[in-house]
Every structure is written in C-alpha cells, then in structure tokens.
Design brief:
Structural class: mainly beta
Low-confidence stretches: none
Order of helices and strands: EHEEEE
Mean pLDDT: 85
Strand content: 25-35%
Number of helices: 1
Distance between the termini: 13 Å
Helix content: 10-25%
Largest sheet: 5 strands, mixed
Length: about 100
C-alpha cells in the first residue's frame, strides 16, 4: 500500500458528510501512513501553507492533493492519489 508523504497537519475537507464516513476516512488515511493525531477534519484556515496535504472526502473516494498555490483565500492543489472507498449493499464501508 502506497504511503502518503506529509508533514504537519493533513486537512480532511468534510462536505457535511456523516460521521461513519469520516471515521472510515480516518482509517483509510491511517492505512496510508498518516497518524490519526495529524488528521484535522475541521474547516482549514483561509491561507494554507504550500505543500500541505489536503483530502477531499466524498462518499465513494478520497482525493488527496498537495497545496500548490493560494489565491484570494482559496487554494489550488495538485492530485497526489485517489483512494476508493468500498461499501457492501447496505452501505457499510468494508475495506
């Protein structure tokens, strides 16, 4: 399993998704080498530092990116990896 190279806080951007999904997101990020205490799922500060890792959490995958530039309180990131999230027919995450 590929490890994610990072320093400091990893920002998991929550788009108002349910807690079981966020818990599974943390598990998957830990599987890829990120320490639980380094994951922050609150809204990131307006100005993220360059090279910080950000994770967009979606119902079926995680998009991991690295901040490349900031502009007008927004950031632009380049994709590092996508982690697919698998669920059983009842919607329970299984991987």
């Amino acid at each position: 399993m590929e490890k994610i190279d990072y320093e400091g806080t990893v920002w998991a951007i929550n788009h108002g998704l349910p807690q079981p999904l966020l818990d599974h997101c943390v598990k998957k990020l830990m599987d890829h080498g990120i320490k639980k205490e380094d994951i922050n799922s609150q809204m990131p500060p307006p100005m993220l530092k360059l090279e910080l890792v950000v994770v967009d959490v979606w119902p079926y995958h995680l998009e991991i990116g690295r901040v490349r530039t900031t502009r007008n309180d927004s950031y632009i990131s380049g994709s590092v990896m996508i982690i697919e999230l698998k669920a059983d027919p009842e919607g329970n995450y299984i991987d």
